[in-house]
Amino acid sequence: MACGRRLHLTRAITVLLTVVGTVIVVNILLLSSGSRNDDRLVSETRRAEKYDDQTLSARLTAHIRDLQNELESKRREIAEYKESMELLVSARKPVEPKFRRLMDARREKLLLQVVNTVAPVGANGTVRRGLRYIGCRELEHITVTGTAGSGYTKVVQKGKYNGVDVAVKSVAMSGHDMRVCLDNGMDRRDCSALSNYKIVKEVALLQALAHPNIIKLLGYCFHGGEDGSVTSIMEFGAPLDVISLLQASWEDRFRISLGLAQLLAHLNSSPIGPVTLHDFRLQQFLLVDGEVKLADLDDADSYAPNCVEDSDCTLEFPGTSFQLSCQQSKCSSWSDKSNLYNAYRYFFVYLLPFEAPQALKPLVDEVMNKTATLQWSSKETVSHLERILQLYQSGAYLQREGKADMTGYKKLPQSDVRGAGDFDCLRSLSRGACAVSVFDAQEAASMCDRDRECQGFVLTSKKTWIGRPVVYFKNNVTSPVENADTILYTKILAPT
Fold it and tell me: 163-172 pLDDT, tens per residue?
């Protein structure tokens, strides 16, 4: 720990520089693996030059043609979807169907059940307690407090239900998808049905894929009508942003990385087969009580390309590609590898390396290298991250020999230093203070010894998510006060 006085913006800038360096090193490693990509790069350059020579008119014409094809495909989706909407067409009032079959029209093979129950089942198979199931009748008791976000298809509103924050999802009737659909000749009913189908699909997936790192479905309502209007209610979470992530402690960033890896391993062995997250971005995830959760599933499916030989299974990303194997006419591990590399480039590279405990850095570096080159599966990544967690939680990373030496500190039980002596440090769990998790008082003393500004620390009864105690390092310990829940340790200064 370097407990110098630093602003949190400095931490963010430092992490960004570290990330840039990490990406450069990884790219060099990838490039040094061979020159097999040279011909492909030359070919891509030539194709790019040829494309640039096209006229603007030709490019626009091609774009319009693609859009027309996509709209025609969506027309077919609506036609196939009407079968699952027939029960709703005849409804004259909001209903809560006991059972409904939904088909993913795009793949024509993913058959899921949406079941209304007295209380939705939690990720571990137990009935959720504390929040009553929210159905059509309960919607009127939700107090909407504002808009939480919106996308191409949906709008998400923040609401209160029985004192609990919830997220209410419905179709954005003036959103991008509706506008494009209407502008291209489809009627409002069909456009609305198509948009609502994405919410229906997400409800089905949330029930089929329940997991601690997937947002909880708290309820939903089929309103009836020909457009199949649907409202879903989820638990509420905080959006992720790069600056907040970079300002978080390494322990909290590690928690996000581990949770994400566990999510990907779950998706790869889910009840409906391997699931690919096509829209893998920071904005698709939320933080709920410090746990990262996937919040948007309408662009997830079990797609894997058909193939004849390995060359048909090239997984492309900006600046790099990976060759997968063709097995039984399908590209093997397509979903898992695609999800894992996206996790690396959008999360791991920002969250894992910076401020990792010195003794754990070789293990962290191995995780970075193996995920950057897709040498591991998501399951293997989870196993190695859990090993790092075990070493961190048990204190084994400290590699101690002999008995603890606290002779340089005076111990003052039931004492504290309130409102004085606080300063910023890089690994802090909170702003305006140097609050750090430690294995024990001996580790805290060792960290304080390495910082010239530190004159002592307060060991509190607070615990982090893995049970490590929180200490507050102080640069002034001259005015202790009584506190039954803390222990104050002050440096014994050598005589001058």
Answer: 999 999 988 8
Measure the CA–CA gap between 270 and 451, rounded to whole angstroms. 48
| Class of residue 57 by CB neighbours under 10 A (exposed 0-12, middle 13-18, buried 19+) | exposed
| Residue 1 near residue 448 (C-beta atoms within 8 A) | no
Catalytic residues: 279
Look at residue 118 and give its three-state secondary structure: coil
User: Using CA atoms, how far apart are residues 352 and 248, in angstroms rounded to an integer?
Assistant: 11
Quick one: pLDDT at residue 301? 85
The label of the residue with tokens 């020999």 reads: 401
- The pLDDT of residue 131: 55
Q: Report the distance separating Cα 356 and Cα 224, nearest Å.
A: 53
Taking the CB of residue 410, how many other CB atoms lie within 10 A of it?
Answer: 13
HSE-CB of 246 using CA atoms within 13 angstroms: 19
Question: Alpha-carbon Rg of the chain, whole angstroms?
Answer: 27
* DSSP per-residue string spanning 362-427: HHHHHHHHHHHTT-S-HHHHHHHHHHHHHHHHHTGGG---SS---TTEEEEEEEE--SSS----TT
Chain segment 341-390, per-residue pLDDT in tens: 999 999 999 999 998 988 999 999 999 999 999 999 999 999 999 999 99
Spatial distance between the Cα atoms of 69 and 346, rounded to a whole number of angstroms: 31
- On the question of pLDDT at 298 being above 90, the answer is no
CB 263 within 8 A of CB 295: no
Please give the model's pTM, rounded to 2 decimal places: 0.73
